[in-house]
Task: inverse folding
């Protein structure tokens, strides 16, 4: 196997988020991105989802470095957890490393982790791999693609990108990608998020025009919510606010943290006297205030949520406030966003959120941009990444339209090893992979059994049957007592509670008549008899938990 390059996705395939890809050759291994995902609706109580890195732990001695394309959560969010399991230097651009440092500080990992900062054009040697940083446009500054030179050829990984000719930090470096294409590209791994959208992704400059239109002539307070990481968007708000004679206050922990990092690194040009503390806004006229806040995805503890539901210490929504939601809802967050919008309207705010208002553009490339990268790089093999199955399949179809042979297009899956040689590139064995669930401070202690129980409790509630038995003859000394949670209100259902007590008593008596003294069997009998009764009479299936005490 030493003569084969292995490409293994531990995250980011057949899902949105949780991006992590391993490249391995012989005794050397590197990782590209280390992201998290957000819990699905049936993951009750789970905070975050991170990749299973069992394979990295097993191959720790081979690991030469972790390379990060940009600073979004789905690309850096799992680093604090992964770096507790493995050790490796982290290579990224300045803003990305600034955001990573914030995360490591929260987990007391700063001293243990080597953060290495690079700029586009830099080339890093990592074992037998050589990694070149290439500038790309995205909805966060300092995003890069990687050209990774391996013993079998050059592999290009675009990361999340789009092509924006009017970007403040310059357009995606198409000339470099074209030059690599002329040299010869072995494999292209490209972002598939927007492959279903035709045409080109609009420029970020359109958003600035849309924001300016809503600032013009407004006599009330303006509240703008957007992704905290979108420095270009925040820069536009600062410039427009200054032009219209308004002061800007920032609220929301993630927004404040990222703003501090961006200012320290020089990524924001703040007009003098424009930025003020959130506590100063009460002394300013309404037509001279702009508040930039978190909460564009309807998050429960975000600043906008707390404003809407009267839980914010400094700001409460007032009639006439203009609230601009400069973001689109991530799939799955639509209900949460709608809830906030409805509450804002109830408070008398003027809410601007329609996509047609030109207040948000995607950070991902649409079809025509993807075609440009295909045409420039001319890869021998193509591996679509960063998307669900439909995205991967549509991107494969687009590659065929560009003239690629179907046998040179590989749609992989999590844990599948793509084995590459000078002559072939094909799917091979599978390595351990999956989802590790983070619940509070617990990492991986919530598994399928716990999730199943949580789902059961959420859907049907719980019944606890408590009974004291004699240690001498097993007779009932007290009880059974019935306690319910999330099933029915006991005081309003006394007849049902009496019936359940009778069934539990009968179950215990039947066990006694059969001379069964094993507690596990008695509990199982109580659980079975009560369960059958409830399903037969109430068509419900609560969790039943018998508790027996021997006195």
Result:
């Amino acid at each position: 196997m030493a003569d084969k390059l292995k490409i293994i996705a531990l995250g980011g395939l057949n899902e949105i988020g949780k991006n992590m890809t391993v490249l391995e050759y012989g005794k050397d291994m590197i990782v590209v991105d280390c992201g998290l995902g957000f819990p699905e609706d049936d993951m009750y109580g789970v905070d975050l989802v991170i990749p299973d890195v069992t394979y990295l732990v097993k191959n720790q001695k081979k690991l030469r470095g972790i390379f990060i394309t940009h600073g979004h959560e789905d690309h850096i969010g799992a680093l604090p957890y992964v770096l507790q399991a493995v050790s490796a230097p982290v290579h990224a651009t300045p803003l990305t490393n600034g955001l990573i440092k914030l995360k490591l500080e929260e987990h007391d990992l700063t001293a243990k982790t080597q953060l290495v900062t690079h700029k586009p054009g830099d080339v890093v040697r990592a074992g037998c791999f050589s990694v070149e940083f290439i500038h790309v446009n995205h909805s966060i500054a300092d995003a890069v693609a990687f050209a990774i030179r391996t013993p079998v050829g050059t592999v290009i990984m675009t990361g999340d990108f789009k092509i924006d000719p009017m970007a403040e930090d310059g357009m995606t470096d198409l000339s470099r990608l074209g030059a690599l294409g002329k040299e010869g590209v072995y494999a292209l791994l490209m972002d598939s998020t927007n492959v279903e959208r035709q045409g080109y992704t609009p420029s970020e400059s359109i958003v600035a025009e849309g924001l300016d239109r809503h600032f013009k002539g407004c006599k009330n307070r303006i509240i703008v919510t957007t992704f905290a990481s979108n420095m270009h968007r925040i820069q536009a708000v600062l410039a427009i606010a200054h032009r219209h004679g308004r002061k800007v206050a920032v609220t929301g922990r993630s927004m404040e943290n990222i703003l501090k990092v961006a200012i320290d690194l020089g990524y924001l040009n703040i007009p003098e006297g424009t930025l003020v503390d959130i506590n100063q806004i009460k002394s300013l006229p309404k037509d001279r205030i702009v508040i930039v806040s978190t909460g564009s995805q309807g998050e429960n503890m975000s600043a906008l949520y707390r404003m809407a539901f009267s839980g914010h210490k400094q700001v409460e929504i007032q009639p006439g406030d203009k609230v601009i939601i400069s973001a689109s809802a991530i799939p799955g967050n639509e209900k949460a966003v709608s809830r906030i919008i409805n509450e804002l309207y109830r408070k008398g705010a003027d809410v601007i959120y329609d996509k047609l208002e030109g207040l948000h553009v995607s950070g991902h490339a649409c079809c025509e941009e993807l075609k440009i990268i295909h045409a420039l790089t001319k890869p021998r093999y193509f591996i679509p990444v960063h998307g669900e199955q439909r995205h991967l399949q549509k991107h494969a179809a687009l590659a065929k339209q560009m003239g690629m042979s179907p046998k040179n297009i590989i749609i992989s899956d999590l844990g599948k090893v793509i084995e590459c040689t000078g002559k072939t590139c094909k799917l091979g064995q599978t390595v351990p992979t999956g989802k590790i669930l983070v619940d509070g401070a617990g990492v991986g202690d919530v598994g399928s059994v716990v999730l199943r129980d949580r789902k059961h409790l959420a859907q049907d509630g719980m019944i606890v049957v408590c009974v004291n038995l004699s240690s001498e003859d097993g007779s009932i000394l007290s009880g059974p007592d019935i306690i319910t949670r999330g099933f029915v209100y006991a005081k309003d259902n006394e007849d049902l509670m009496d019936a359940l007590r009778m069934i539990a008593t009968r179950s215990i008596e039947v066990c006694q008549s059969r001379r069964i003294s094993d507690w596990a069997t008695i509990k199982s009998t109580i659980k079975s008899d009560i369960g059958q009764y409830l399903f037969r009479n109430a068509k419900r299936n609560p969790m039943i938990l018998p508790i027996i005490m021997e006195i």
The two ends are 65 Å apart (CA to CA). Residues 168 and 444 are 41 Å apart (CA to CA).
